[in-house]
Fold this protein.
Amino acid sequence: MANTSIVWKNQTKLRTGYTTGSCAAAAAKAATHMLVSGEVVGEVSLVTPAGIRLYLEVEDIVKENNYVSCAIRKDSGDDPDVTNGILVYARVTFAQDDVVKSKVILEAGEGIGRVTQKGLEQSIGDPAINLVPRRMIREAVEEELQKAGIDCGVRVMIWVPDGAEIARKTFNPKLGIEGGISILGTTGIVEPMSEKALTDTIFVEMKVRRENGMDYCYVVPGNYGSDFLHDTLGYQEDAAVKCSNYVGEVIDDAVRLQMKGILLVGHIGKFIKLAAGIMNTHSRQADGRMEILAAHAAMAGGSRELICQLMECITTTAALELLEKEGILKEVMSTVMIKIEEHLKHRAGDVLEIGAVMFSKEMGILGKTSDADRLAQKIQSRKKNV
């Protein structure tokens, strides 16, 4: 069993896990040891790039004269990861040709995705095994060869039997990785509910768009925004990057990647917070929805009674109904969008064109920044040329 550890997130005690990269490296290490020593092992140890030593159970061992294969079961700890529990396999065989003497030749089999677009760590056509896992696999295998005093090259095949099916539930299809999962991990350890893991994925998704010719794109928090893009605005949702709650980070990513422009499209429940400069829209970070609406309602001449009613609202839908009934909804949304544009442009600086469209499910478009329509046209024209 792996010696996982405990971390605290939002006053909750959570168990860490280990990555598909750690699984692949451990499986390759165990298979190599069994191939060169002739003995069967039920457990393998692996030191991760984070410096944490894992002790992992070896499963489904197949030992033949010319190869050994085995698997390590992925444990994501308390992280809600679709790859939790999968078996990551490695098969190790001696290389017969002198060209690969003393080298580790890494190959990918069933269930490992292939890169189909620019912008990822690997080139188009290569298996989606990232750089750190590649290094981990190579070093783990070389360690066993050196211990046995064997000066011979080996071929290491990594595969995941259920990888193609599991990949449909991941970001891989949007990132241009087809046919399976990726072998990932920079530290070898899965930290549950990791914000960095999510923001790294957002960055990669935008990087793929950028390196495939889309220097303008939409940004949506989630499915509400994607559906509104497609169903109401008639825009192409595959030209959008999902940012979750990380509006500030995705703006920073766009600047870092030298994007020319982004258009944010989102529901008022999240985007109203942008009017106060709140760039992480998760309720855990900040709320302020009713305070913002109440302030703008007061600016529009709303009564004290209305302001008090707004402050008691639980949902933005209820607040919008009050503003509409009072006859000041349009004016309130106008000043709200001015503030949203001000804060977005401050975050983006002078190097990135930026705009926003805010909507509700019941009332449709509530407001646009001044550059929103122009940005939408640029995104659509770029999409046609990609």
Q: What stands out?
A: The first helix runs from residue 20 to 37. Residues 6-11 have pLDDT under 50 and may be disordered. The first strand starts at residue 6 and ends at 9.
